[in-house]
Write a structure and sequence with these properties.
- The complex is a heterodimer of chains A (102) and B (468).
- Chain A is 18% helix and 35% strand.
- By secondary structure, chain A is α+β, with helices and mostly antiparallel strands.
- In chain A, the strands form 2 sheets. In chain A, strands 2-3-5-6 form a 4-stranded antiparallel barrel.
- Chain A is elongated, with a radius of gyration of 24 Å.
- Chain B is α/β, with parallel strands linked by helices and 468 residues long.
- Chain B has 3 domains: 7-55 and 100-207, Rossmann fold (3-Layer(aba) Sandwich), CATH 3.40.50.1100; 58-98 and 208-419, 3-Layer(aba) Sandwich (Rossmann fold), CATH 3.40.50; 435-467, no CATH class.
- In chain B, 44% of the residues lie in helices and 13% in strands.
- Chain B contains 18 helices and 13 strands.
- In chain B, strands 1-2-10-7-8-9-13 form a 7-stranded mixed sheet, sandwiched between helices.
- Chain B is globular.
- Classes of the chains: A alpha+beta (102), B alpha/beta (468).
- Chains A and B meet through strand 3 and helix 2 of A and helix 5, strand 4, helix 8, strand 5 and helix 9 of B.
């Protein structure tokens, strides 16, 4: 996807390669790089996958791989958890229901 | 000559970077060994209670409602022996501008940054504190950068942290999202060096002093409503600042008889810096992964001396399970009509258990709540857990194994907070102090300091030292 200079984009870069990671990091974490995601205004035109520079909202210049144009929030309320329904039903029954309430 | 930007290079400049970014010379309070002058640090670099209250009121922080949990109290009495079941209240901190008590800490830190002339503020946090700093920075017209630990190496992120990033961005902050690892601190230092912004650390004297208003308000409101102080205040414990500030505020009100209880979610067995275990936990704060290490070594934080020193003020420390907290969150919504985020309900879950031990005329205050919404709600957090292979079922929470299952209590009588042995924590803290200062001779002042810092006695410290 083509992005124009000035577009609001998400970029990705590697902060530390696996061999550069801190000595105290557990073994599973040491196998992978430390990665970073930052958003900013694209400085020059680019295509997703290109190495580009952006100006962040605080005015810093960051470089990385172009990931997404107009990055969207995708978090939501998740899949329904039916067990949660039972909590309210049984608590209300315990508190307000039963013989005392009839 | 360009600076060494490698991990080791940046870390070696840590003290110098921090000095510039906080404006406190910690050497002034140092003795050269284990002890330091904590009260002097709080006095000379913090703010008075009156000043803090004024600063917070000017941005709409504090003075939050104290709500009685009438139905939860009734429920507790149904499952308690005759005459038992204390009254439970929550201090509704979600009413703060950024949706949590963290606005109190941020209000003072950001005010201080503005006063010292910094152009912007930076905080390293995945939690509510980031939103609080961003919210306050917006009000003061300062720039703001929040650095988060957000994703595992597969690019999967906790819904709760992702929501917090959205909230920070909503307030105009720049959010830097990292994958798992303690090198977040390295990125944080690089940013401080690059921007010259203020380190709005959670652990500075102004950050902690900001919470004192919370403890003070609790005491004042209870005296107004009941003519006396509460019997128990339960604080969710992670880095220790929440408990420290609240307890100091209670002391400033003269509420010396209140029992201060710490509560954390049990995440034992999960390594906090592990890429593969990162998404196996359903709580990103208020858990034992922070609560225990920060209690036994508070100076592990991002400042040379942490102003959050929980063992100094803690009377009791209990742990609750993830399942118990999720269950309690649903109970709060269903029985009290108050929908709040799960992490802030850690202490409510503990309070339900503690209330059963106490007489009906006793008063327990749960000193925080937090906002909720997409990502930061029991539904997405449990859904995320299930997607990550965590079993969710009803049962006895004592069978819960963090990272394997989440057990919702069969009924409220199964909510049972477990005590952590405080003397063990105190011993571990004293041991850490000795190990981190291998060259220093333990002086009389050090022993006195350790006694104060562990809320124990000179005899207790001496007996531990003898054993080591």
């Amino acid at each position: 996807m083509m992005a124009k200079a000035g577009d609001w984009v998400l970029i990705h870069n590697i902060v530390l390669k696996p061999e550069e990671r801190a000595p105290q990091v557990p073994d599973d974490t040491k196998k992978v790089p430390l990665e970073c995601l930052v958003k900013g205004f694209l400085i020059e035109d680019g295509v997703v996958g290109d190495t580009v520079r952006v100006k962040t909202i605080t005015g810093r210049i960051e470089q990385g791989t172009l990931r997404e144009v107009n990055p969207t929030y995708t978090h939501d309320y998740g899949k329904f958890i039916p067990e949660l329904l039972q909590i309210g039903i049984t608590l209300r029954e315990t508190l307000f229901g039963g013989e005392d309430n009839e | 000559m360009s600076k060494d930007m490698s991990y080791a290079g940046v870390m070696s400049r840590r003290n110098e970077i921090m000095k510039n970014a906080i404006g406190i010379d910690y050497d002034v309070f140092e003795s050269g060994g284990i002890s330091f002058d904590y009260e002097k640090m709080m006095r000379e670099t913090g703010y008075t209670l009156e000043e803090m209250t004024k600063i917070q009121r000017s941005t709409g922080v504090g003075n939050t409602p104290l709500l009685e949990m009438k139905n939860i109290t009734k429920l507790v009495r149904k499952i308690s022996p005759e005459g038992k079941g204390a009254r439970i209240f929550i201090k509704d901190e979600a009413a703060n501008p950024s949706g949590s008590f963290k606005a109190r800490r941020a209000a003072n830190a950001v005010y201080h940054a503005k006063k010292l002339g910094y152009k912007g503020v930076i905080a390293a946090t995945s939690g509510n504190y980031g939103a609080a700093v961003a919210s306050q920075a917006a009000m003061y017209g300062l720039k703001c950068i929040i650095v988060q630990e957000c994703y595992d190496s597969q690019g999967k992120g906790q819904p709760e942290i992702i929501e917090k990033a959205r909230k920070c961005e909503a307030y105009g902050a720049e959010v830097i999202q990292l994958t798992t690892g303690p090198e977040l601190f390295y990125t944080f230092l690089k940013l401080l060096e690059e921007t010259g912004y203020f380190n709005a650390s959670l652990y500075t004297p102004f950050g902690i002093a900001g919470v004192e208003t919370l403890g003070y308000e609790i005491s004042m409101e209870c005296r107004e409503k009941f003519g006396r102080d509460p019997d128990v205040v339960v604080c969710t414990n992670a880095g220790g600042g929440n408990l420290t500030g609240t307890a100091r505020g209670l002391q400033k009100a003269g509420a010396d008889l209140v029992e201060v209880v710490a509560a954390s979610v049990d995440l034992s067995g999960l390594h906090m810096a592990s890429d593969t275990q990162f998404n196996k936990k359903s709580f990103t704060t208020g858990h034992t992964g922070f609560g225990i290490p920060f209690s036994t070594w508070p100076d592990r934080s991002d400042v040379p001396r942490s102003a959050g020193r929980p063992l100094r003020y803690m009377d009791r420390y209990v742990i609750v399970t993830q399942g118990e907290v999720f269950y309690t969150t649903e109970a709060l919504a269903q029985l009290e009509g108050v929908e709040r985020g799960p992490a802030g309900n850690t202490s409510l879950a503990a309070a339900i258990s503690i209330a059963r031990e106490l007489d009906e005329d006793k008063i327990i205050i749960v000193q925080e709540t937090e906002y909720t919404g997409a990502g930061k709600h029991i539904q997405p957090q449990l859904s995320f857990a299930r997607d990550n292979g965590i079993e969710i079922r009803f049962g006895d929470p004592k069978d819960e194994v963090p990272g394997e299952n989440i057990i919702l209590p069969k009924d409220p009588s199964y909510i049972k907070a477990n005590d952590i042995d405080l003397n063990k924590l105190k011993r571990s803290y004293i041991k850490n102090c000795i190990e981190k200062n291998p060259d220093s001779h333990v002086t009389k002042e050090d022993i006195q300091f350790l006694a104060e810092d562990t809320k124990s006695s000179v005899e207790f410290v001496e007996s531990i030292l003898k054993d080591l």
